[in-house]
């Protein structure tokens, strides 16, 4: 039963999802790039002053906002791919090498691989917050507002305790 679980859930489905995710990130980046080029070409062709169009050497250059969107999508996708790659390798090894399991011949290597895999998954979740803060100003302002509210609430509670203790 463990072997069926390893084959289906820990390998086949994960590899299929992994390939789909890589394909989707690639297609998304390509489509974003195409959309930016089309938007630029429309704005360049709608300009009435021919000198204004010729001032820009590359009318199809990406704006900084468009570039940030593409960079954030690629970065989040790459972080996910890099964090899940150890799990895929460890699952495949577990399937191919019979002693690669808890209590097996390669128990210590299995424990190290499991720890690395879990740590990479946790880092993926942690790093995403910083990526979103860097690339999304609205997310950053909402996150700071939440932290300010929490800190303000704690400060008010400690001030109230100090006043209560004096009385």
List keywords for this structure.
single chain, about 170 residues, mainly alpha, 2 domains, 5 helices, about 0% strand
General description of the model:
With 167 residues, this protein is mostly helical. It has 2 domains: 2-135; 137-167. It has helices at 2-45, 50-55, 64-96, 107-135, 137-166. Helix 3 packs antiparallel against helix 4 (107-135). The longest helix is centred in the N-terminal third of the chain and has 44 residues, at 2-45. Mean pLDDT is 79; it is low at 53-59.
Write the layout of secondary structure elements.
Blueprint: H1 2-45, H2 50-55, H3 64-96, H4 107-135, H5 137-166
Helix pairs in contact: 1-3, 3-4, 4-5
In short:
This protein is an all-alpha fold and 167 residues long.
Strand content: under 5%
Overall SS class: mainly alpha
Oligomerization state: single chain
Mean of all residue-level pLDDT scores: 79
Main beta sheet:
none
Mass-distribution shape = flat
Low-confidence stretches: 53-59
Number of domains: 2
| N-to-C order of helices and strands | HHHHH
Distance between the termini: 67 Å
Helical stretch tally:
5
Helix content: over 70%
Radius of gyration over C-alpha positions, nearest whole angstrom: 25 Å
Strand tally is 0
Transmembrane segments: 12-33, 69-89
Keywords: Membrane, Receptor, Transmembrane, Transmembrane helix
Protein name: Chemosensory receptor b
Organism: Plakobranchus ocellatus
């Amino acid at each position: 039963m463990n072997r069926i679980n390893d084959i289906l859930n820990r390998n086949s489905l994960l590899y299929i999802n992994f390939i789909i995710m890589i394909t989707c990130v690639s297609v998304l980046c390509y489509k974003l790039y195409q959309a930016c080029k089309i938007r630029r070409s429309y704005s360049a062709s709608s300009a009435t002053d021919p000198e204004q169009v010729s001032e820009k050497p590359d009318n199809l250059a990406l704006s900084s906002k468009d570039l940030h969107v593409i960079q954030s999508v690629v970065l989040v996708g790459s972080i996910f791919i890099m964090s899940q790659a150890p799990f895929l390798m460890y699952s495949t090894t577990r399937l191919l090498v019979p002693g690669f399991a808890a209590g097996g011949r390669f128990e210590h290597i299995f424990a190290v691989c499991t720890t690395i895999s879990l740590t990479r998954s946790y880092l993926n979740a942690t790093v995403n917050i910083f990526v979103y803060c860097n690339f999304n100003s609205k997310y950053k302002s909402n996150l700071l507002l939440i932290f300010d509210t929490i800190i303000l609430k704690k400060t008010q509670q400690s001030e109230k305790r100090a006043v209560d203790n004096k009385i």
